[in-house]
Amino acid sequence: MEQVTVSSKGWIAIPPSVRDALNLSEGARLNLDVRGQEIVLSKEPAWRKLRGPGLMSAFATFRKQEREREDSRS
Q: Is this model's pTM higher than 0.85 or not?
């Protein structure tokens, strides 16, 4: 088990051995959970990086283009 110290700003440094084991680099996003008296940090799931326009946004764009095509035919 690694031990860290909380700074006056509330920051902790993740030891290099842990960063290397989890392939963490600057800017990596972590989730933080409090479970009783424990703090649990976990890597953000890889699928979150694939975020793009939401399905409803894509559907709304599709419908708008479809209406414009229909209007241009009239």
A: no
